[in-house]
C-alpha cells in the first residue's frame, strides 16, 4: 500500500481548496445539499458530495487515487465544530 504524501504546505492546500470550492464547486452543490460534505481534489478540481468526510473522500479516491483532498461542509465555514456555540438562525 502506497502512502500518499502532501504536495503543498498546509496554507497552500487550504487556499487551493477554498478557491476551487468558491469558484467552481459551490454553484453546483449548494442547492439541496446543505450540511453535506464536499471532498475536492486540489490538483484536478474533481469533487464528490456525501453525508460524511470518509464517504466523500473514498469516492474521490476511487476516481483519483492520488488525489490531494480538501473537505468542506456545504453552507458552513468548517467541516467540524468543537465545543459549545450559539445556534445560527435556521439550524436545528
Notable features of this structure?
92 residues, alpha+beta, 3 strands, 34% helix, globular
Helices, strands, pairings?
Layout: H1 10-29, E1 37-41, E2 47-50, H2 53-63, E3 69-73
Antiparallel strand pairs: 1-2, 1-3
Structural account:
The structure is a single chain. This protein has helices at 10-29, 53-63; strands at residues 37-41, 47-50, 69-73. With 92 residues, it is of the alpha+beta class. It has a domain at 10-73. The protein has a three-stranded antiparallel beta sheet with strand order 2-1-3, with helices on both faces. It is globular, with a radius of gyration of 14 Å. 20% of the residues are buried. The model has no long low-confidence stretch (mean pLDDT 86).
Largest beta-sheet details: 3 strands, antiparallel
For the biggest β-sheet, the strand order reads 2-1-3
- The tally of helices reads 2
Mean residue pLDDT: 86
Low-pLDDT parts are none
Large-scale geometry: globular
- Level of helix content? 25-40%
Secondary structure class reads: alpha+beta
C-alpha termini separation: 41 Å
Q: Compute the gyration radius: what is it?
A: 14 Å
Strand content: 15-25%
Could you state the order of secondary-structure elements as H and E? HEEHE
Number of extended strands = 3
What would you say about this model in short?
By secondary structure, the protein is α+β, with helices and mostly antiparallel strands.
Amino acid at each position: 500500500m502506497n502512502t500518499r504524501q502532501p504536495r503543498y504546505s498546509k496554507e497552500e492546500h487550504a487556499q487551493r481548496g477554498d478557491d476551487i470550492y468558491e469558484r467552481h464547486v459551490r454553484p453546483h452543490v449548494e442547492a439541496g445539499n446543505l450540511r453535506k460534505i464536499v471532498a475536492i481534489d486540489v490538483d484536478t478540481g474533481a469533487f464528490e458530495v456525501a453525508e460524511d468526510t470518509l464517504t466523500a473522500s473514498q469516492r474521490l479516491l476511487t476516481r483519483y487515487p492520488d488525489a490531494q483532498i480538501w473537505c468542506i461542509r456545504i453552507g458552513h465555514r468548517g467541516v467540524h465544530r468543537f465545543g459549545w456555540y450559539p445556534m445560527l438562525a435556521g439550524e436545528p
